[in-house]
Amino acid sequence: MEQIKNRSLIGFMCEPSETSLAVTNPATGELVGHIPTQSREEIEAAVERAYAAQKLWQKQTAKARAAVLRRWYQLMMDNQQDLGRLMTLEQGKPLKESMGEVAYGASFIEWFAEEAKRSYGETIPAPMGDRRIATIKQPVGVAAAITPWNFPIAMITRKAAPALAAGCSFIAKPANQTPLSALASAELAYQAGIPRDLLILVVNPSSRMIGEIFCTHPKIRKLSFTGSTQVGRLLLEQCAQDVKRTSMELGGNAPFIVFDDADLDKAVEGAIASKFRNAGQTCVCANRFYVHDNVYDAFVDKFATAVKTLKIGNGLEEGVAIGPVIEEKAKDNILQLIEQAKQQGASVACGDHPQPGLFVEPTVLTEVTQDMAIVSEEIFGPVAPVIRFRSDEELVQMANDTIYGLASYFYSRDIGRIWKVAEALEYGMVGINEGIISTEVAPFGGVKQSGIGREGAKQGIDEYLDIKYLCFGGLE
């Protein structure tokens, strides 16, 4: 850890013990360090402390909360290099991407620091002369979150920042594979003046146990989860017992569509950005490529040529574009999907060569058909299956043929087609002639079984606020 200049960012690390959690580098298999874990009793006690801290935090003015969040944002940016290196060590993504995620994660803190002062209520014309009607917004209370390993900083800040801005306390479980950068970000929050009992991160090998506490503890009134649809369903079922507020950002199966009037060079550029960042391990990554028959061969040729230039390796090495996948199980699943597609008739345009360790070579598959498993399942790896289509109607039907509805992308220069297809796609987000759509200023979220609620934008803070209706009577 000699690469981390700000030693306070790793001050939470400990010596190995029976209760500590080991964190390893997926690129090398080397031990990064150990962190302490918390028992059930300790986590339940943390919830009680968060409950008490929230009552005090709620009394702070929105302007005061905003000032503290602004200091946290600045500390994140001041430590961008160290946070990025820490993320690459534990998660594997290229350093350039890690640095970008730090800035992206910090942007939510900056955004919601500003939104804290804009959680307006309203006055409503009353139906009777002796009444006045108004609404105010109040924090839901203690908010809990469970976050994934693929964006270990951004998925914490995208939830913690609006919760704290709204006046909630926040307790979260970062992924066991990647807790270090999340804990380091929390340390910066404490340095900024956020009370330790107001923002709490807990770690335990049993994700199921923490999930049960978060879903059933009576003093937790809100749960935000980013992860698989399968786990999201279980959490929703448990939260239903207490009728908790929930936000769910679940699985995706994003189509990337290239129409015959598209700028193919721009489409290839967008496809590379959308598919291969973080080695294909994002919920909004392009998962299946639909290309019009008239430009299919030309697109595949340009796409495969670009993919061949992507360098695989340790994310700390210069020029690396593709890091490792997160674990052996993930690699096995990716390779199994490739092999199954080949057996069903798909061809390899590039890639699919054996790689050591947890690396998977960026791969483009052609002559893929809609009925293959690689089309219906979330790949979560650097593999691009390319499917032909011949009409807009056929395309929309195939693109919507999934239980998921998170992100989608298409390239076209026909304004009429752009509006029709954008409206017809059953997805919460649509990238039009653009492969990267995530930003703190826009509402992030899906439809169908891809989730509930929105993160970012002005909608993001509303997920942590209750609307209270005030009726003033007897005003004669």
Structure report:
Helix 9 (264-276) packs across helix 10 (296-307). The protein folds into 2 domains: 7-251 and 449-469, Aldehyde Dehydrogenase, Chain A, domain 1 (3-Layer(aba) Sandwich); 254-401 and 407-439, 3-Layer(aba) Sandwich (Aldehyde Dehydrogenase, Chain A, domain 2). The protein has 476 residues and is an alpha/beta fold. It has 15 helices and 18 strands. It has helices spanning 40-58, 62-78, 80-91, 95-115, 154-166, 180-192, 207-216, 229-239, 264-276, 296-307, 328-343, 373-376, 392-399, 415-424, 457-462; strands at residues 21-24, 31-35, 122-124, 132-139, 142-146, 169-173, 199-201, 220-226, 245-249, 254-258, 286-292, 347-350, 363-368, 383-389, 407-411, 429-432, 451-452, 465-472.
